[in-house]
Specification:
Pfam families: Isochorismatase (PF00857). The protein has 186 residues and is of the alpha/beta class. The protein contains 8 helices and 6 strands.
Length: 186
């Protein structure tokens, strides 16, 4: 597998977002994500973390946005944007801060990708129906090649997760497990 012009996007791996996951599934997810991140670093593939973050007082949150307005009090916390310590960025990794579901909305991700000459995004994150779906759609509209690491994603709604991974995403992205992707790098 060609790794030139590829970046690994690890999205919304923040303790406040992951708090709803069962502990056993969380530990497994974080282990798999670490495997992907370490493999990417070993093959000089940029690792880009995407985190949801707002200014104090959340002025970026509109009362017209039903989801974000309802969660406003959760976001107004200086620690909200922290990445889970079990998958913490390492030296050389990039962190991008976004303002909505898509990794592109309110962030400088597009500028970073152009600066790195990235044409292929490999995606993992929580939740499948939030950041993964929104980022996949927007990245596809930007004509980026996409791979979704199916076992690097989680959604609290198992049926929604299944439908997205088996019916929706394969129309716009290659689907791989983290093991398959890592093995393809060698």
């Amino acid at each position: 597998m060609a790794t030139a012009n590829t970046a690994l996007l690890l999205m919304d791996l923040q303790p406040a977002i992951l708090a709803g996951m069962p502990n056993d599934k969380l530990a497994e997810l974080l282990d798999r994500v670490n495997k992907a991140a370490n493999a990417a670093r070993a093959h000089q593939i940029p690792v880009i973390y995407v985190a949801l973050s707002f200014r104090p007082g959340t002025p970026e949150v509109s009362s017209n946005n039903q989801f974000f307005d309802a969660a406003r009090s959760r976001f107004d916390n200086p620690d909200f944007a922290n990445i889970h310590p079990d998958v913490a960025p390492q030296t050389g990794d990039i962190i991008v801060y976004k303002k909505r579901f898509s990794a592109f909305t309110g962030s400088d991700l597009d500028v970073v990708l152009r600066g790195l000459n990235v044409k292929h995004l490999v995606l993992a994150g929580v939740s499948t129906s939030g950041v993964v779906l929104s980022t996949t759609r927007e990245a596809a509209d930007k004509d980026l090649q996409l791979t979704i690491l199916a076992d690097g994603c989680f959604d609290a709604d198992e049926e929604t997760h299944r439908v997205l991974l088996t019916k929706v995403f394969p129309r716009q992205a290659g689907m791989k497990t983290i093991d398959e992707w890592c093995e393809g790098l060698d």
